[in-house]
Design a protein that fits this description.
Blueprint (H helix, E strand, L loop, with lengths): L10 E7 L10 E7 L2 E8 L2 E10 L5 E9 L4 E12 L5 E9 L6 E9 L1
Antiparallel strand pairs: 1-2, 1-8, 2-3, 3-4, 4-5, 5-6, 6-7, 7-8
């Protein structure tokens, strides 16, 4: 039986993103977890300040909503589903499928990895 991943206190950085995304390798995420409730703050690159809130599912996947202010002073947001992968060195890699709540070119994918 696989135990549920605890994301509390973990720090992640973006390693890839769709062209229509705003997160980059300069964007860092700080995760907090209280039971099955997940939250995070993120910033860096084109992101001035961002937050997310969601849930950790029984299979350790994540479902959350995100909002941020970018360097153009625009409020952006959407929904995301993340699937974890445990890397050989024990770090977590999250494969993300997201959808903007605003604008054109709405869907994309990204990958973020735990920073030790």
């Amino acid at each position: 039986m696989i135990s549920i991943i605890n994301y509390d206190g973990k720090r992640f950085v973006s390693v890839s993103n769709s062209a229509n995304g705003e997160v980059s390798s300069a964007t860092y995420f700080e995760y907090q977890q209280d039971e099955t409730i997940l939250s995070a703050s993120y910033q860096g690159g084109d992101i001035v300040k961002g937050t997310l809130i969601g849930v950790v599912k029984e299979d350790s996947s994540l479902e959350f909503r995100y909002n941020h202010i970018n360097t153009n002073n625009e409020l952006r947001g959407g929904v995301c589903q993340s699937t974890p992968e445990i890397l050989p060195d024990g770090r977590i890699r999250l494969h993300e499928r997201w959808t903007w709540s605003d604008g054109e070119d709405r869907e994309g994918t990204s990958v973020i990895e735990e920073v030790k």
